Amino acid sequence: MRTTSNPAFRNLPSGQGGYATFDRQGGGMMGGGAAYADSRASRAEFGRAGASERPLTVDDVVIKTAITGGVALVAGILTAWSGLFGLALPAIIVGFVVSLIVIFKQSTNPFLVLLYSASMGVALGALTGALEFSGTNFQGIGFQAIVGTAGVFVGMLIVYKTGAVRVTPRFTKWLIGASIGVVLLMLANMVMSFFTIGGLGLRDGSPLAYLFSIVCIGVAAFSLMLDFDMADRAVKEGAPAKFAWYIAFGLMTTLVWLYIEILRLLSYLRQE
């Protein structure tokens, strides 16, 4: 069984047989505790839960993912249209706090998941709106970023379903390593920006910044394949239906990252 670079998809239990293998070795990008599969008590608990709940289906995942994505999209459009760009920072803080609660508590509470989606929708809408109103060169960039994100999502889903690229243990380890490397470079660039103009040059619109954005988009896109694989396994292992909300949250976190990177790359291209 494989792990994933998305922290939201770790330790996901099942109603039949303990789908806790999402954290096979108690590790990953964000760390984690022992797997539920290693705990007889946890297996017994979720076994009893599974007896009273219907198992997860693909339709559950699709519907809940569509709802979370729709909430984020509507919130983003309304924020950009209203011009309330100052909501970006508060929304990011709310989204970050809620994401930590959902991840560490493995919450399937629809309210928390939708609150995260709405918060990030407001944040992305505010950032996109501020960018569009900053000059004529950026008008329409939000629509392009949305189309690009949706295109990558559909494309990677097709790649996954057709088996053109298989999610193997080696592929998973490579992608997790790449994700860790990208995050460390982002942090290093942010720290260096406090001491030098432009930091490491990863976000200043230079050729290196172009390359880094493309790499980030690639890593985020292939991370979707791990997310699809985790969701697919949850369905096959008979996880409780309520975990569709948790899976939708995990997919949403990857889509948020993907949108930000696509928007950033488009902003570089619009500056030409």
From TrEMBL:
<feature type="transmembrane region" description="Helical">
    <location>
        <begin position="174"/>
        <end position="197"/>
    </location>
</feature>
<keyword id="KW-0472">Membrane</keyword>
<dbReference type="Pfam" id="PF12811">
    <property type="entry name" value="BaxI_1"/>
</dbReference>
<keyword id="KW-1133">Transmembrane helix</keyword>
<keyword id="KW-0812">Transmembrane</keyword>
<feature type="transmembrane region" description="Helical">
    <location>
        <begin position="243"/>
        <end position="260"/>
    </location>
</feature>
<protein>
    <submittedName>
        <fullName>Membrane protein</fullName>
    </submittedName>
</protein>
<feature type="transmembrane region" description="Helical">
    <location>
        <begin position="111"/>
        <end position="131"/>
    </location>
</feature>
<feature type="transmembrane region" description="Helical">
    <location>
        <begin position="61"/>
        <end position="81"/>
    </location>
</feature>
<dbReference type="InterPro" id="IPR010539">
    <property type="entry name" value="BaxI_1-like"/>
</dbReference>
<feature type="transmembrane region" description="Helical">
    <location>
        <begin position="209"/>
        <end position="231"/>
    </location>
</feature>
<feature type="transmembrane region" description="Helical">
    <location>
        <begin position="143"/>
        <end position="162"/>
    </location>
</feature>
<feature type="transmembrane region" description="Helical">
    <location>
        <begin position="87"/>
        <end position="104"/>
    </location>
</feature>
